[in-house]
Amino acid sequence: MPETRKPARATVPELIRRGRREPAVVQTLRATAAATIAYAVALWLSSEPAPLTAPLTALLVVQVTLYSTLTTGIRRVNSVVAGVLIASAFSVLVGLSWWSLGLIILASLMVGYAVRVGEFVPEVAISAMLVLGVTRVADTAWDRVLETLIGAVVGLLFNVLLPPVWVGSAGESIGDLSRRMRLLLLSMGEELTGPTPVETAAARLHEARRLDNDIAEVDAALRQAEDSLRLNPRVREGLLNRVVLRTGLDTLEICAVVLRVMARTMTDLAKDRGDQELFPSEAGRALEELLSHVADALVSFSVLVTSQVSASAQAAEQRLAEGLRSALACRERSAGLLLDAVRRNPRNWQLHGALLAEVDRILDELDPEHRSRRLMEELDRSAREQRERHPRLAALRQWAGGGRNGGTGAR
């Protein structure tokens, strides 16, 4: 019996840690807590016996990130208040009938677009219909406004006090993507040392095309992480973290496109060679080793991009530099062997050259100097966009920085 309980004790902490990193689990607990608190506050402040509008609003306002909570909460409050005011005006004039219901829906949707509540335009009509269907419209309208404000305030405070940060989950997604790309490169390398059926090469090409779906999923996780860094008091360098992750994903996306082209090149070679080897044995082994180094460099790059601790980042950068050096040395040896093979048999020389060019493109994208240049360009672009979007705030920061520098120089 003790032997059967040990795995359970070992798995429960792991499940808890995994759940804390899972956005769906955390968001479920946060939304439940916010809705419950909003209902308790509404029971205390509202005259309604069951003020369900407050927990409903809190449930909808508490989004995954603080930034989306602030923007969504304001639009939701505007939509509900607009619907309540429309219903109050209609109840005084016409009351509830089939034609007045259609008219109030039309008016609510038009007002929703006019006040720019975004995706909450239907909420204006829903609020108006719910209020219009109640007997005591005047009292219910004000109670519904109060409940809406309670739910929105609770939802906003919940995320202000406990703002989530989803950088970790986005980093895990980037790491998973790089490992899938690594496995694909290793599989492609294994096929270079012998005859490769066209079906096998075509399967690798299909697998490379599926990387587009993986990149789309990682991009969604990264957008969530970027939103979690905006206006978050728990993050000191939100802009830098956002740019590092975004440029890292851009690099992996370019490498995925090159991998797809490489798989296409190998498929064309397999079609032409038939039962023969794609490359001479020595050149094939050199290319397999080259793709293995490139695959390891991809994983080292993702670790570098997602490292939050300086020591981990330095170690990852060192591993990436060593992997790139090994890949470049192996690339030169492979190029020499391919050149000798082409001299003996010039058939498909353009495909051999294309394969080396595709490897060169991946190595160039993973180069630390290339990454640093792109990172600086993105930081400059983001800073320039912020200055153009908020010129007064930029001028105030520049004035404050100049004042501090001037004071230091005087001392």
Low-confidence stretches: 1-10, 403-411
Major sheet: size, sense and barrel closure? none
Shape designation: elongated
Q: Report the C-alpha radius of gyration, rounded.
A: 30 Å
N-C termini distance: 74 Å
Counting DSSP E segments of at least 2 residues, the number of strands comes to 0
Secondary-structure-based class equals mainly alpha
Average of pLDDT: 77
The helicity comes to over 70%
Task: Walk me through the structure.
With 411 residues, this protein is mainly alpha-helical. 84% of the residues lie in helices and 0% in strands. It is built from 15 helices and no strands. It has helices at 2-21, 23-45, 53-61, 66-93, 98-114, 121-132, 137-161, 167-190, 198-229, 238-273, 281-306, 310-344, 349-366, 368-389, 391-410. Helix 4 runs antiparallel to helix 5, helix 4 packs across helix 6 and helix 10 (238-273) packs across helix 14 (368-389). The longest helix is centred in the middle third of the chain and has 36 residues, at 238-273. It is elongated, with a radius of gyration of 30 Å. The N and C termini lie far apart (74 Å). The relative contact order is 0.08. The model is unreliable at 1-10 and 403-411 (pLDDT under 50).
